[in-house]
Write a structure and sequence with these properties.
It is built from no helices and 11 strands. With about 130 residues, the protein is an all-beta fold. It is globular, with a radius of gyration of 13 Å.
Length: about 130
Amino acid sequence: QVQLVESGGGLVQAGGSLRLSCAASGRTFAVYVAGWFRQAPGKEREFVATITPSGTYTYYDDSVKGRFTISRDNAKNTEYLQMNALKPEDTAVYYCAAGTSGPITTMTSARKYDYWGQGTQVTVSS
């Protein structure tokens, strides 16, 4: 079992930045692919970014590419999502997730992830 707890959400103006953190406990976090998803009101949960267990490779949804950066520190059992140039359409509850390793381009599906955090709200005002 892996327990995940997100932090760092909040209210920010368009163009601003936020950094989300996800602290893992339980089994060794370093063996899992880590990802971020988001869910806006009335919409399905959607993929944002993912990172391989070693942190070598990352993959992003086109909507955030160039603005968001996913990273991890396995020594601290923590993954991060640095979000820059935020837009009102980025408003959502953001979830971190951990899953068994697979080809990174296939890790865009929520079904690939076994463990989830409780979510943190990000609101971007125009």
